[in-house]
User: Fold this.
Amino acid sequence: MLFPDYRGRRLRQNEAFRRMVRETRLSVDDLILPLFAIGGKNIKNPIPSMPGHFQLSIDHLLKTVSEARDLGIPSIILFGIPDKKDAFGTRASARDGIVQRAVSAIKDKVPGIAVITDVCLCQYTDHGHCGIVDKGIIDNDPTLDLLASIALSHVKAGADMVAPSDMMDGRVAAIREALDDNGHVNTPIMSYAAKYCSAYYGPFREAAHSAPQFGDRRTYQMDPANSLEAIREVTMDIEEGADIIMVKPALPYLDVICRVRDEIDLPIAAYNVSGEYSMIKAAEQMKWINGAQVMMETLTAIKRAGADMILTYFALEAAKELRK
Ligand code: PBG
Ligand code: ZN
Assistant:
């Protein structure tokens, strides 16, 4: 069909028609809100590079989680900022660790919202890497036991789902085995499967105090230039028992989301990471863009690319926007 028989504008002329032919719909059901838990009481430390986000002590955390629940957001993902760090990230799996205490408080006080926990070592190790370090090398295999025990400790505290973000080889299998051996056969794993070595994590590392103290994460996180490799990573994690697979970051990797969608039939999560959030917030503060509109356009684009769910610091704002 060619012009003038076909006129694309016919179905764009009013909002009713536009709604009828809209292909992608963002819903509050798609949103996962990341939150940062810290020890102490009545603490709400603003994260300068992430306006609207805070390191929250458990009392404040509970308020934010209920707000999310009341807006209809189905789940949050928790990151912990521990009181102490050491070479092996011991506090990551402690029964009285920050994430473990936060999870049990939320499960106790705020029913009706799922709690996912991020499983990693980098906030808990003094060197800031996501695995154990031996002579300057991130040592894969000995790290697996630690990751499995962190995940198990989260689930024992009440976590509904665990999300390993470390990018060690074999971690999904190790975590699945530890959960199953302890009777948690029904706890799903959302694996950060295609996680790129990205400068977009900058603001998060400020928020979570998790920047590597030497070197970088290039020996375990993926090279931004690769996408066939993403399929291998995703396939491996599925074979090891992942229930949901994640692509991270989201916006600079929409092609990867799309490619994974074509090849994989598991639910796909996309992580709209801290730097993606901060750039929009900064431009909004400069009055260079309309922040709310760019937010909705961005989240819709991530969904259009093929994501089933989006981890995003915009979750509360987007949920409010969707109610309008
Ligand atoms: C830790 C972790 C990171 C993020 C989630 N989990 C940072 C990193 O890998 O350095 C990034 C989240 C964000 O930037 O919003 N493994
Ligand atoms: Zn990490």
Summary: The longest strand covers residues 31-38. The pocket of PBG (ligand 1) is lined by residues 118, 120, 122, 130, 165-166, 201, 204-205, 210, 273-274 (CB under 6 Å). The chain has a mean pLDDT of 98. The CA atoms of residues 187 and 269 lie 17 Å apart.
